[in-house]
Amino acid sequence: MVLDTTPAFSERILACLKQPGGRDGDGLELSGEALRAVGSGETYPFIEGIPSLYVPLDGEGEDVTARVKSFYEENPFPSYEGLEEFGELVSKGSQNPFSAQLLKAIGYNKTVLECGCGTGQLSQFLQLNNNHVLGIDMSLGSLRLAMEHKRRNQLERSSFAQMNIFDLAIKDNAFDVVISHGVLHHTFDARRAFSHIVKKVKPGGIVMVGLYNRPARLPTWIRSKLIGLFGNRIDYVVRNRIRDERKADIWIKDQYYNPHETWHSIDETMGWFRENNVEFLNCSPAILGTGGETADSLFDKTDPGTAYQRMITQIGWLGTIAREGALFDLIGRKKA
After folding, report:
1. What angle in degrees, to the nearest 10, is found between the helix axes of 245-256 and 218-230?
2. pLDDT for 4
3. How far apart are CA 168 and CA 275, in angstroms?
4. Which of 31, 162, 179, 277 is deepest in the core (most CB within 10 A)?
């Protein structure tokens, strides 16, 4: 039985919200199964128990957004199968090098925003260490699973809401850490989406963006042309990591049949950082020869290297991260 007594938002997260399209002073408060704008009194009802502050795009990007939204409504990612209890999710997250290193780097008692949280597994994990986490996504199908897990396990420091990444109902300079891992490349304009999420980071706070890498994503594209002939076993993750048939099906659809994706380089993403007043700190996987390989924390400041080092790093990824989707993360600090 799913418990419904857990509050939808912790007080720290609720204080970060605002009316969609409104000013930072247009805060929100809970009013039964709805959110109410303190100033205007306008209400935003929960949809199937999910707080919804989603404003559809009008015009530019509408078609891409609609297709991607429909895709994830039908294919919530990642699957929760086998992770019904919070302890099981924590065990999985602790054994995963990426999520374990991220939690360690975030530390204690922080506010964290995950833009494009999917089914919320990373958000649930990061609320350890007394962190308060808000996961936002446009897919109700994915958020439904996130809310079910939250309520079943009575998790009070993780919160979820349906939002549009191009119209975030979140006050500027509100969060200590903002993460978007494997999401912006599915929007109609990843560069513009990045400029929106950076606004929500406090000065001195951390922003982390994970994107498909332009050179390293090429093998996935090649496999997408062959998978119909050779079947799912052509994929490294399905062949070596996934035993559950449903999980394998969701992974294959996400990697090979997504209706929209773009590829990006380290240098391009560094350009986004400069445009938005973000200081480069680190790259994961590390840029070769820059000290990133031996950094104690994902958030340690490392050398960005030369254009040649970054090029060689990305070519090297053809033999490493390319087999698992070619996702790389760039980490920076918002300048004061």
Report:
1. 130
2. 58
3. 20
4. 179
